[in-house]
Write a structure and sequence with these properties.
Length: 171
């Protein structure tokens, strides 16, 4: 006959709900971390792949040498974790000088991750070849032997493909 004026939860119901939520969060946490590492590695290696493809396409389209490397003080460094710079490289190799133009710059990669390439730069010639700068690009999230590591192979012809190796180590 009388309508209940109070709507909501009492203290016992609220604590029970919070306890269930906390237990589910603890159970799901390791899976969420794995998902984040896997997604970050996949996203980063695809960014590298797209950057390399862009550089090769520009080299072929404009008939000029294009270099991809991390830049510090207008020179290529080997700290690949700082991100990639794509630039025309008409003067001295592996440095921005004279008429060189910066085409594209990626952001820094996650500071906990390992990014390696076996050479100081990747240079695409006017015909698209990467002669002398071919190699394997490795991206390992958080650990040198992470199960979520990814790799790209740059061949002599300048083609970029994903590595087929099941185990990739950044050492």
């Amino acid at each position: 006959m009388y309508a209940n004026k109070y709507h909501g939860f009492n203290l016992v119901e609220l604590l029970t709900g919070l306890t269930i939520f906390l237990l589910l969060s603890i159970i799901a946490s390791p899976s969420l971390n794995s998902f984040v590492l896997s997604t970050r590695a996949d996203s980063s290696i695809r960014t590298i792949q797209q950057t390399l493809i862009l550089a090769r396409n520009i080299a072929i389209s404009y008939g000029t040498r294009v270099t991809v490397c991390p830049i510090e003080n207008n020179k290529c460094t080997t700290n690949w974790q700082d991100g990639l710079s794509v630039f025309t490289d008409t003067g001295q190799k592996n440095q921005i000088d004279g008429q060189d133009t910066i085409i594209h710059v990626t952001g820094h990669f996650n500071e906990e991750d390992i990014v390696l390439y076996n050479r100081p730069a990747i240079r695409f010639q006017a015909d698209g070849l990467a002669s002398g700068t071919n190699g394997t690009f490795k991206y390992c999230p958080e650990e040198f032997d992470s199960p979520y590591s990814k790799a790209l192979v740059v061949n002599q012809a300048g083609r970029v493909r994903f590595s087929t190796k099941k185990v990739i180590k950044c050492d």
